[in-house]
Amino acid sequence: MSTAVAEAIDDFKSVTTLNVQNATAVLERGLAALKAGQTVFDLRYVLTVDSAAVSVLLAWEKAAQDAGLTLELKNLPPALQSLTKLYGVCSLLFPTSVTLEPGEAAPANPLHEEFHAVTGQPDTAKLKVGASPEPQHHH
After folding, report:
1. Segment 58-81, tens digit of pLDDT
2. For residues 87 and 58, is the Cβ–Cβ distance under 8 A?
């Protein structure tokens, strides 16, 4: 009877930023986790992202496919969800069974509360949407 202990699952708790500065390190960390057999990646602790984060996710997905595994990405921050939509890669990263419906909100994540004011709906009155342009005064 084997008493070998499986390697601990990487919970990515220490990854609060996924951007160009740490993308290579996070990529390698994820590839190592995949190699150890981990297929579920929970990104709930990631608060700050840039486009490099999308590249990391795509590389993880490719590595999982090459290994015959199915990658499951959970609790992506809203900013990262927006980037995957912007770049048109949602279908590459998420099976259709877990793709959000148009207009459906992502599950709430208390760690992202500070961003609600930034990502909320614009105040159309301040933007003067639909208002006539102000007259130009020439001197």
Report:
1. 999 999 999 999 999 999 999 999
2. no
Q: What is the pLDDT of residues 95-130, one digit of tens each?
A: 554 445 555 555 544 444 444 444 444 455 545 555
For residue 54, count CB atoms less than 10 angstroms from its CB and return exposed for 0-12, middle for 13-18, buried for 19 or more: buried
Angle between helices 51-66 and 23-35 (to 10 degrees): 20
Convert 119-129 to b/e letters by CB count within 10 Å (16 or more is b).
eeeeeeeeeee
Residue 61 to residue 89: CA distance in whole angstroms: 11
- Provide DSSP, 77-121: -HHHHHHHHHTT-HHHHS-GGGPPPTTPPPPP-GGGGGGHHHHS-
Q: Which residues contact 61 (CB under 8 A, 6 or more apart)?
A: 71, 92, 93
